[in-house]
């Protein structure tokens, strides 16, 4: 490195620091895709004394997880008659197939842990979304948010963003 008398002595150090800051968000994005955005759990539990629904639900989850390593979206139905269960998943377009698979694989575990075994559930992580529903039960609109889980780790900046949006709208109207 050059001596401090040279006006460009800091350039190599600056480039190293800049490179480090460029890499930090990339290493964080894969982990962030597993944060819960919201969950929706039907109030009615899955009544399943014979285990038929549980078997169909396990089969559905297995199919969805397997397909998540090949596609960003998949919808399927399992079972028959009154034991029909429909489910789907969708991953963000920028996720790799491996990251999509990792994200979707977490959803059945989280749904079971946070919802139990309801007749219908949906959950969205930052990277993926899953929904399942037992046929024949009245559903709440897919456009209605049932429950929102907010993260306390990223709460700053609301006033700044709101101000930016209002300024943008004001300039567009002028």
From TrEMBL:
Residues 1-29 form the signal peptide. It comes from the Eukaryota. InterPro entries: Cell2Cell_Antifungal, GNK2, GNK2_sf. This is Plasmodesmata-located protein 2. It holds the Pfam family Stress-antifung. Residues 34-137 form the Gnk2-homologous domain. Belongs to the cysteine-rich repeat secretory protein family. Plasmodesmata-located proteins (PDLD) subfamily. It is found in: Cell junction, Plasmodesma; Cell membrane. Keywords: Cell junction, Cell membrane, Disulfide bond, Host-virus interaction, Membrane, Repeat, Signal, Transmembrane, Transmembrane helix, Transport. GO terms for cellular component: plasma membrane; plasmodesma. GO terms for biological process: plasmodesmata-mediated intercellular transport; transport of virus in multicellular host. Its main location: other. It is a single-pass type I membrane protein. The keyword Membrane applies. PROSITE patterns: GNK2. The keyword Signal applies. It comes from Sesamum latifolium.
């Amino acid at each position: 490195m050059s001596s401090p008398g040279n006006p460009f002595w800091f350039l190599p150090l600056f480039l190293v620091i800049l490179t480090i800051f460029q890499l930090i968000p990339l290493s964080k994005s894969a982990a962030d895709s597993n944060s819960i955005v919201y969950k929706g759990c039907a109030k009615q539990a899955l009544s399943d004394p014979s285990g038929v629904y549980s078997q169909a639900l396990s089969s559905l989850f297995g199919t969805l997880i397997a397909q998540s390593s090949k596609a960003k979206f998949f919808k399927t139905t399992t079972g028959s008659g009154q034991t029909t269960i429909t489910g789907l998943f969708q991953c963000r377009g920028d996720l790799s197939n491996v990251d999509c698979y990792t994200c979707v694989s977490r959803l059945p575990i989280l749904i079971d842990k946070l919802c139990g075994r309801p007749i219908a559930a949906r959950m969205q992580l930052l990277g993926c979304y899953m929904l399942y529903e037992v046929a024949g039960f009245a559903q709440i609109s897919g456009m209605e948010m049932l429950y929102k889980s907010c993260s306390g780790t990223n709460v700053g900046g609301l006033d700044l963003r709101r101000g930016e949006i209002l300024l943008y709208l004001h300039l567009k109207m002028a």
